[in-house]
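Deliverable D5.2: sample structural annotation.
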Amino acid sequence: MKNINILLFVIVLLSACKNSEKNDFVTLSGKIENNTDSIIRIFSREGIVKEFSINKDGSFEDTLKVKEAAIYNFATESNKNVPIFLKNGYDISIKGEASDFFETFVFSGEGSQNSNFILAQIKQSRNLGDPQQILALEASDFQKKLNQIKTTYDSILNSYTDLDSALYTNIKLQNDQVIGYFESVYAKNQVMGKGKTSPKFENYVDYKGGKKSLDSFKGKYVYIDVWATWCGPCIQQIPYLKEMKNLYKNKNIVFIGISTDENTRSGSWEAAEQKWRDFVKNYELGDVQLWAGKDFSFQQSYEINGIPRFILIDPDGKIVDAEAPRPSDPNLKNLLDSLNL
């Protein structure tokens, strides 16, 4: 009797061990209603991971191995697609309509909660509204809207209780970054938003002689190009900038270049200024060319951390766009034409 009990215990133990083992692959199955495609492809950021067939009735079943637990793309050859979270050991069943993967797909089975959550998160982001309208709200309404967004995202995240821990951590971080982005841009817009009084520069050296300040150009729209002689992307914009100057040469707008060349790259402030002067002459930049010299207050006020940077200011010294389109961007012409210069 004792030996029989031991034998039964060993059989149960072995059975338990066998059932607890995870497959080292993912099983995918399901059915897409009203489907006309014949191929399903699973994509990672590196390319196609697996390709398999869809039966005529829209059903499918196959397995694949993934290098890492991550969000992949489930797609057909007609480019209908939906994100899916895959991890070896998952057994996921999919049902949905060919007409709209995002709205109709439902995942079930082991590991399916991750994909259902991702879809819910994306749908919420789509319903977020126009970010520019949110950023244009008054302070109290903005904070109320931000709290609503945070509550909704947290609610979605916490309603799925069986998420992969890495996915949960990444999405939580992403949600925090979205809120942080809105807070940061809103605070920046209070200083540099459309219609705000522009920070000023004063007594910048003019290539043609004397010194100029922002107030020197009151009554005109001012398009400012913040650049430097060592900046490759700045130089690439020069031909486009010349085209814009010719296009609007008889309009109520002045194009100003502000060089940020400084001593650390040239050896001295005098050498930096000479390098700027030589560059303006050699490239025939023309119009208003100013050198900031040691005064970086204007750049700091506009939080300029990279160049080229373009700024558009109206005749009253109000900001039209603190990060205006580049001359090479067709949107600049659209913007300037909308001002009835």
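Annotation notes: The chain has twelve helices and 15 strands. Confidence is low (pLDDT under 50) at residues 1-21.
The annotation will be released with the project's public dataset once the embargo ends.
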